[in-house]
Structures are given as structure tokens and as C-alpha cells.
Amino acid sequence: MSLVKVKQYKIKVEWGDCDPYGIVFYPNFYKWMDSAQWSYFKSIKQPISKLEELYNIKGLPLLHTEAKFLSACVREDILNIQTSLVNITNSTLKIQHIIKRKNKIVCAGAEIRIWAEENNGIIKSKAIPDKMKKVFEYYLVEEKKV
Fold first, then answer.
1. What pTM was computed for the model?
2. Is position 66 within any domain?
3. For site-directed labelling of 54, which of 5, 12, 15, 117 has its Cα 20 to 30 A away?
4. How many domains does the chain contain in total?
5. CB 25 within 8 A of CB 19
6. What is the pLDDT of residues 82-124, one digit of tens each?
7. CATH number at residue 39
8. Looking at the domain assignment, is residue 1 inside a domain?
9. DSSP annotation of 6
10. CB under 8 Å, gap of 24 or more: what pairs does 141-144 form?
């Protein structure tokens, strides 16, 4: 993966992130992937708040998420989340997150998010504008198999 197209997001595991056994409680990985996703779009100069204003969308709602947990993490671990865009369809973006501790993969996850609009209180997908597809296509990388 090209490091220019893969964006880094670091976190430190805190006491409150862990279960009574001192191991990271699994929902925190999803919280961190969500935070990394917001950071990713900001780092490619396409913050979601800007996209909302320009294209009248309602964020990038989550359609699907998944994670594969490979190793337990504990308090004070420093985790590096490598986030990349791995697929674009007419109305969705697939984002991959590879979470490492000391260069060892501890979790691999992905999110599929929709380009969405709201109409009379109903959120539904709509086509990603061609201009934005071209921007996103520049950042596309091959999905890493874990």
C-alpha cells in the first residue's frame, strides 16, 4: 500500500477502554475505526462537514462494518490505525482499517458507508458525484487481505 494514500491515526489504550481483565473491550475498536474514518477524510482535504455543505448530504452513514481480532490489546498500548479507501461503487465507499501495535496487526476492519441524502426525514443513498468519484479514485488502494 502506498503510504501517501494510507493515512495514519494513533491512539493510546486507556484504562476506560478495557474490561475488568485489562483487555480492550471490543466495541472500542469500532469507535476507533470511526474516529480514524473522520480523520482520513480530513487528511485528504475532504472533511465530511465540507462534503455535507457542498453536496447536501447527511454525512456518510454506516451500511456495514466488520472486524477480525487477531491479538488482545491492553492498557497503555499505542495503536496505529492505517486507514485506506479500497472500493467505490455508485453510492458507497469501502474503507479499510489495519490496526497495529509495534508493527504487528492486532485487528483488521472495514466499513461500507453510503453517500446519503435526507428527504422528508428519510435517509437514502444517492450517486456519488463524478467530481468526487475522481477525487476518491486517486486515493484508492488494493484491499489488504488479513
1. 0.94
2. yes
3. 5
4. 1
5. yes
6. 999 999 999 999 999 999 999 999 999 999 999 999 989 999 9
7. 3.10.129.10
8. no
9. S
10. 141/1, 141/2, 141/5, 141/6, 141/84, 141/85, 141/86, 142/1, 142/86, 143/86, 143/87, 143/94, 143/96, 143/110, 144/1, 144/84, 144/96, 144/98, 144/108
Buried residues in 64-75 as b, exposed as e (16+ CB within 10 A): ebebeeeeebee
Residues 6+ apart with CB under 8 A from 93: 60, 85, 87, 112, 113, 115, 128, 136
- pLDDT beyond 70 at 9: yes
Distance, CA of 63 to CA of 34 (rounded, Å): 13
Q: Provide the domain limits for residue 61.
A: 7-139
Question: Do the beta carbons of residue 43 and residue 107 sit within 8 Å?
Answer: no
> Is residue 119 a part of any domain in this protein?
yes
- Indicate whether 146 belongs to any domain: no
Percentage with pLDDT > 70 across the chain = 98
